[in-house]
Amino acid sequence: MPERKRLVAGNWKMNGLQADGVALARAVAARVGERHACELLVCPPATLVTAVGAALAGSGVGLGGQDCHAAASGAFTGSISAEMLKDAGCSHVIVGHSERRHGHGESDADVCAKAAAAWRAGLVAIVCVGETRAEREAGQAVEVVSAQLAGSLPDGASAARLVVAYEPVWAIGTGLTPTSADIAAMHAAIRGRIPPATRILYGGSVNPGNAAEILALAEVDGALVGGASLKAEDFRAIAEACR
Length: 243
Ligand code: PEP
Prior knowledge:
It is built from 10 helices and 8 strands. The protein has about 240 residues and is of the alpha/beta class. An 8-stranded parallel beta barrel has the order 1-2-3-4-5-6-7-8, surrounded by 5 helices.
């Protein structure tokens, strides 16, 4: 089986004006240097993609979008297509983040169409899945995530163009994380449901203090980082935990 190079991706969400984004990108590039312990990616808000891409030029840190529309173009006010992200310099796009699934009512079918759009544009799709607290407490976490995977992955998935991010909804932005045993068990369950060698990231309150333990778990191939990715030093420390 080919080696799965670890990936640490920062999701900046709706944070940053031009000057903040460029300063953060420069600080990330300066701190991680040229020899990364893992593949690194930042996903700024759409307004910052071009400026952040320029600030990261030559650093080896990749650029991703946070969401895309399923269509390539058209009358979809306020939306951005995968082709537009590709054109702006992105290599990846996050789809199905819980803030889209739960905050914007996106279904598995919507996420599936967005992942297919990412592939059509030549982007790697980072497909997010994860259970709510109520679903975990009801013992349904694996069942819920399995159903999300079944409904969210288009035909033709492969390790080259798919990354799966397991992000328990209740762990995002809360400071809470599942136990290491629960993360390992979920990643093992996901592994059996996706193409061989596809990377599986863990996301949900990853920080410099817990990254090493999480990244050492079997079947954890990296992290999707929200809040801690807004501090260059914390992002660097999480990336270092890949070593
Ligand atoms: C996320 O939004 O994908 C995320 C994991 O956020 P946080 O790290 O802040 O929990």
